[in-house]
Amino acid sequence: MTWLTSPLVTIIIPCYGQVAYLYRAIESCIAQTYSQLEILIVDDGNQKPISEHHFPPDSRIKLFRQSNLGLSAARNKGIAEASGQLIKFLDADDWLLPDCIATQVSSVGHSTDTVSVIGYYLAKESEVRAQPVIPKFGDFFTALASINIGPPHCFLYPSRLVHQVEGFSTAEKVRGGHEDYDFNLRVALQGARVVTCHSVGCYYFVHADSMSTRAENMRVSRASVLRDLLEYYQRQDAFELDLPWLVHALAGALKFDFYPLLKHALLAQVSKDTLSWPATLGKIEQEELLWLLLRCRATILNYDDEQFMLDWLESQLQRLAAIHQRTTRYPTAQNIVSACYPLKPFAYDDTLVMNVVQQAKTVLAPKKLLLWGDGERFQRWRDWLMLTTDTELLGTTTHLSETVEKQGVRFVPFNEIDFSEIDKVLICSDVYYWDILSLLRSMGWHAKVIDLYATLQF
Hints:
By secondary structure, the protein is α/β, with parallel strands linked by helices. The chain has 14 helices and 14 strands. The strands form 2 sheets. Strands 1, 2, 3, 4, 5, 6, 7, 8 and 9 form a 9-stranded mixed beta sheet that branches. It has a 5-stranded mixed beta sheet with strand order 12-13-11-10-14, sandwiched between helices. Helix 4 (about 140-145) packs antiparallel against helix 6.
């Protein structure tokens, strides 16, 4: 479907307890360079009712009043009264830059099923300068698994989609906030096409009374929204969340500290034996997911009684690393990386090297340090360790058939190694790291491994 003429855009402004900011918000709407607008103000039961003196005169403004039913209900009232083919939600304490609507209408072209996202200035009451933020992401639904992409007024929605998802939820799960997050998840589930305007179009004002500053409520509500979605999929035998989405959801829960609230719902999903990595993933997308898995694993190591999740993460690292090794395809239809977790290849920095050296120094004769691997990584670790320690080194590889000497290190077939003589194991292979760790775990020697990835952070 396409627009026949310039579409009417409805701007819905709910207001409760923020009348002092309302004039500025409405003034920014009137100042838009795009004129095909209607501006709907929903007074959500303010003790002193909003009247015409609270905003500049303009024939495009309509005022509605209801009892105090909450933010979602106020937005839904606006949706019910909207005539526009496109809808923007603007909170009373935020405002738009003059070209915001024009830029977003232009970005969707003649499409009637495309959501437009524009950048915003993050203006905090406690800071002098506002910070520009341009949302960047690949798949809309996958990006939402790990982070709330932006405030509601950076989106411009087709009214058809807004009605299709039946507006904003008023359920208990959003009582602490994240109504817009829940709304966007349901829009994404409709397969909405999303375009990003690489410019700033509005201000997002965070002050002491903002819902987004109530950290505990927001943490709980976000977990509740995701848990509701996960439980819905658990009940639907015909539908399944894919592995990239689940990894992003786990990463978001760990990074923003609500994993304990989401744990059981996540475990129910990752326990399914039908999960597999999509064949459509390009090499760089695989690297981003490997990065996320590594940091999820490092964070899970700090939790008690998480052996199942730790085993699952290591098994997925093993599987995805093997796929990545075989993949030569770089471009895909999806953006290369998400805004939430930019690609940061693992690096052997000074801190990591010194950590390994310090652990190697604790290996005292007659115990040995076993280096597993004989490639480039082995050469680098051998050089560092021989320069900095007196530790006796022993080497091995999975396919070694006889004892040999390589660069001053005696290599022994791993099935001939007496592991009672080995104090620590250093895996000297990037490609086969997780295969080797899995083998050592099956032998009961994984506790001896110097974990190169244990200290990674989001």
